[in-house]
Model the fold of this input.
Amino acid sequence: MFFDFGGGELIGLAILGLILVGPERMPKLASEAAHLIRKLQRMAHAATAELRENLGPGFENLQPSDLNPKTFIRKQLTDALEEQEEPTRPQSKIDPDVL
Done:
């Protein structure tokens, strides 16, 4: 689940919400919260699409989690280390006449 809540925690939050908000206003509040979440999701998708469009080719599969500085630096360092390791591998040249 979102935030790793279990069934017991969700029931407890629902009861707390009923006590604080009241049973009359609870359905309207839940509906407004759902609309807000959908609006935030649409905004996040639009921002990601705009970012992909502005960055150009090579970023078609960009994910928002890739923009985390730790993830970005780790990915760049891993790519750089892999590129460095490839040319330093010893090339064994065996003369077929020797065998």
About this structure: The radius of gyration is 26 Å.
